[in-house]
Design a protein that fits this description.
21 strands, globular, seven-stranded mixed beta sheet, flavin adenine dinucleotide binding, 3 domains, FAD/NAD(P)-binding domain, Enolase-like, domain 1, single chain, alpha/beta, five-stranded antiparallel beta sheet
Length: 466
């Protein structure tokens, strides 16, 4: 079978891949985009990850507000959560997003092909769909393969049929007792959401603290918030075995410094990291090498070990955020146009959508210490931010790191309401090279959460004279 020839061949329609197609196809290059199934058009973010989870997290926020309405002066009667309606609200959003993506692909002129692709030669992809096979060859190939939830090697775990975030977002019922394995982004967001929907929740994490990459004071504050909401947290707990079936009855035996215990629940959610979607698709045939963890080897221009083949997003080991994947596209786009853009020294922020949100940009104290960077540290409790006083959202704090011998901002962390918006202010200042005094002395709108930045940076200790 003679290959169909394309100028641009994209495997994966996620945040990087779709932008490559939408940018290059209108420029005149014959472009094909291969996505493995219809429900993943546009990638994981709009279909199974970022946006659907935040949709349901907001439903959980509403449920929590209703539960505490009396504190705000609103008298309500008995209320309950209808998970079928929660799911339908999420599905409506996803269907609308898919329609938008389909229209963008149509307008771009790119050929969107639904099917499973496997490399059969360099830059040559065999795609099987509905019993038919097509062979596609691209002059330039772009890989945007993504990742999937890791199922840890725990005896009995696969047989228990655990939920991942994908299945959890499709539940139309409320678990009686949800056991969550993992204390990172997905585990924390879902644990809190389902507790607010009304489930009993136990969170098990192998790490000694929640959010293991964050400073201990941040993790400690998160732990207290979770405990105040009735979430049971077992840190430094190693799952030993699993029995039963998620959705019916499941038992998880864990070992911790306090000994062994068995947790009994109705449902089990695994949120223990990600695995790249690089196995079994013939990358070795294409000359694309992987690292020891299964991610595609790339340089700082996102070029793989194969000529004229690029990898972007999570499969290339980029930070696992949609905004990082979009920037990967920009790196590739600009270099294709003759530029000299790299992934080095990018200032990539994050936001975890617990309530309150946890957001950070730049270094935290733990990272600064590990790198031998001396920093001045200032903290401000959210209870000191006047906007928080008006809304009653006073949990958490802000923290800033400033260079010990200059006024350069090294990092900012916020555990507080609207943290994802406030962190952008500090990121902008860092990108502009503004000294911390610029935010300290800025006239910020009153009363907003961002106004707290002035008070925070006013607390930065004096510069070291050593």
């Amino acid at each position: 079978m003679s290959p169909e020839q394309f100028d641009i061949l994209v495997l994966g329609s996620g945040a990087s891949g779709k932008h490559v197609a939408w940018h290059m196809a209108p420029a005149g290059g014959r472009t094909a985009v291969v996505e493995w199934e219809h429900r993943m058009i546009g990638g994981a973010c709009p279909n199974t990850n970022c946006l659907p989870s935040k949709n349901e997290i907001w439903s959980a926020k509403v449920a929590d507000l209703v539960r505490h309405a009396a504190a705000y002066g609103t008298v309500t009667g008995p209320s309950s959560v209808d998970m079928a309606r929660v799911r339908q609200r999420k599905r409506n959003m996803v269907e609308a997003l898919i329609a938008v993506h389909m229209e963008r692909f149509r307008a771009s002129g790119a050929d969107l092909i639904i099917g499973k692709g496997r490399f059969v030669a360099p830059k040559t992809l065999e795609v099987r769909s509905d019993g038919k096979t097509r062979v596609l060859r691209g002059d330039r190939v772009f890989l945007n393969l993504g990742t999937h939830a890791t199922i840890p090697d725990v005896p009995g775990l696969p047989a228990a049929g655990p939920l991942t975030h994908v299945e959890a977002l499709e539940l139309d019922r409320l678990p009686g007792h949800l056991i969550v394995l993992g204390g990172g982004y997905v585990g924390l967001e879902f644990a809190q959401a389902y507790r607010r929907f009304g489930s009993r929740v136990t969170l098990i994490t192998r790490a000694p603290q929640l959010a293991p990459r964050e400073d201990p004071d941040v993790a400690g504050a998160l732990l207290q918030i979770f405990k105040s909401e009735g979430i049971e947290v077992l840190p430094s707990a190693q799952p030993v075995w699993v029995q039963g079936r998620s959705g019916d009855h499941v038992s998880v035996r864990v070992r911790s410094p306090d000994g062994e215990q068995t947790i009994e629940g109705s449902d089990l959610l695994v949120a223990a990291g990600r695995t790249p979607n690089t196995a079994g698709i013939g990358l070795e045939t294409a000359g694309v090498e992987l690292d020891a963890r299964g991610y595609i080897k790339v340089n700082d221009r996102l070029e793989t070990t194969a000529p004229d083949v690029w990898a972007m997003g999570e499969c290339a080991g980029s930070p696992q955020f949609t905004h990082a994947a979009v920037d990967d596209f920009r790196v590739v786009r600009d270099n294709q146009a003759g530029g000299h853009r790299t992934t080095r020294d990018r200032l990539i922020p994050f936001c975890m959508f617990t309530d309150p949100q946890l957001a950070r940009v730049g270094l935290n104290e733990r990272e600064a210490k590990s790198r031998g960077v001396e920093a001045r540290v200032a903290t401000l409790p959210m209870s000191d931010v006047l906007r928080a006083a008006t809304t009653g959202e006073t949990q958490g704090f802000m923290k800033a790191l400033v260079d010990a011998r200059s006024d350069r901002i090294l990092g900012f962390t916020m555990l507080g309401a609207e943290a994802g918006e406030v962190v952008a202010v500090v990121q902008t200042a860092m990108l502009a090279g503004m000294p911390y005094t610029g935010l300290r002395d800025a006239v910020l709108t009153h009363p907003t959460m961002a106004e707290g930045l002035g008070s925070l940076f006013a607390k930065v200790p004096a510069r070291s004279t050593r």
